[in-house]
């Protein structure tokens, strides 16, 4: 039996990609499968938390005991997260699209002539973890950072810029790690007394890694 160190805690987790419509048949998205976020949701339930999992479109089953809320776009994801507040812990594991189409075409976009390209106008999506971390009633807020270079520098700057309590840095350029894989390896970064500390969690299944991440969070929550 797992130690019930999250008993009585309300946890909200985002997982999977978002899809940003361009027209009735096309969208912008990314390769997130939802596996990492779903593993975190299962790990939190196992330790006694009540968990809402706000999920982009993925093909995974709902982990037992988890309240899953399905969304498509980043704006829907933010609204769904806000509908689940207040909570004690928020984990933003979703690969949220940074941009969406400035206007979604009502009809299928048509090709014009054979030679010319197509320019799409995009606008910024709201930043979900930063929005939650900026609330007066902010929960303990954990973000992820998917990076392909300068992992710790980029993750460290996201930790500060988004005012997070902890960031999980994921080097997604490594083979067998990150998007879509069953295994993952990450570095946790957080600040104590103005100093950035880190902890490397080696390659293991996303289920085992989720347990290790939640161990670290539970220590800092209580
Ligand atoms: O789903 P899997 O296939 O299992 O893959 C797992 C994963 C690689 C998707 C996951 O481990 C991961 O790294 N998730 C974060 C992906 C991401 O979008 O990272 P980012 O560096 O672009 O974003 C930084 C943080 O800001 C993240 O917590 C993200 O959820 C959040 N964000 C980003 C943009 C936005 N508009 N709103 C956000 O909240």
From TrEMBL:
Ranges of residues in domain DNA/pantothenate metabolism flavoprotein C-terminal: 6-219
Cofactor(s) of this protein: FMN; Mg(2+)
Family (UniProt): In the C-terminal section; belongs to the PPC synthetase family.
CC cofactor note: Binds 1 FMN per subunit.
Catalytic activity: (R)-4'-phosphopantothenate + L-cysteine + CTP = N-[(R)-4-phosphopantothenoyl]-L-cysteine + CMP + diphosphate + H(+); N-[(R)-4-phosphopantothenoyl]-L-cysteine + H(+) = (R)-4'-phosphopantetheine + CO2
Pathway: Cofactor biosynthesis; coenzyme A biosynthesis; CoA from (R)-pantothenate: step 3/5; Cofactor biosynthesis; coenzyme A biosynthesis; CoA from (R)-pantothenate: step 2/5
GO-annotated cellular components: phosphopantothenoylcysteine decarboxylase complex
Chain sites annotated for binding CTP: 92-94, 98, 108, 126-129, 144, 158, 162
GO MF: FMN binding; metal ion binding; phosphopantothenate--cysteine ligase activity; phosphopantothenoylcysteine decarboxylase activity
Name of the molecule in the record: Coenzyme A biosynthesis bifunctional protein CoaBC
Region ranges (Phosphopantothenate--cysteine ligase): 11-222
Keywords associated with the record: Decarboxylase, Flavoprotein, FMN, Ligase, Lyase, Magnesium, Metal-binding, Multifunctional enzyme
Gene Ontology terms describing biological process: coenzyme A biosynthetic process; pantothenate catabolic process
Section covered of the full-length record: 198 to 419 of 419
Purpose: Catalyzes two sequential steps in the biosynthesis of coenzyme A. In the first step cysteine is conjugated to 4'-phosphopantothenate to form 4-phosphopantothenoylcysteine. In the second step the latter compound is decarboxylated to form 4'-phosphopantotheine.
Enzyme Commission number(s) of this protein: 4.1.1.36, 6.3.2.5
């Amino acid at each position: 039996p797992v130690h019930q160190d999250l008993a009585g805690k309300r946890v909200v987790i985002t997982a999977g990609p978002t899809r940003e419509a361009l027209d009735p048949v096309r969208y912008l998205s990314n390769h997130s499968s939802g596996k990492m976020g779903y593993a975190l949701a299962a790990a939190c339930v196992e330790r006694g938390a009540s968990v809402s999992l706000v999920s982009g479109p993925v093909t995974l089953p709902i982990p037992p005991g988890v309240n899953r809320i399905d969304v498509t776009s980043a704006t829907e994801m933010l609204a769904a997260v806000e509908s689940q507040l207040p909570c004690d812990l928020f984990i933003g594991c979703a690969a949220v699209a940074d941009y969406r189409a400035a206007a979604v075409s009502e009809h299928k976009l048509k090709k014009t002539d054979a030679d010319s390209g197509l320019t799409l106008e995009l606008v910024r999506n709201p930043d979900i973890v930063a929005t939650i971390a900026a609330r007066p009633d902010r929960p303990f807020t954990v973000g992820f950072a998917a990076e392909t270079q300068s992992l710790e520098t980029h993750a460290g700057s996201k930790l500060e810029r988004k005012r997070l309590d902890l960031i999980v840095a994921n080097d997604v350029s490594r083979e067998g790690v990150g998007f879509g894989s069953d295994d993952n390896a990450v570095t946790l970064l957080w600040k104590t007394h103005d100093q950035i500390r880190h902890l490397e969690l080696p390659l293991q299944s996303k289920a085992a890694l989720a347990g290790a991440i939640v161990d670290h969070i539970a220590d800092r929550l209580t």
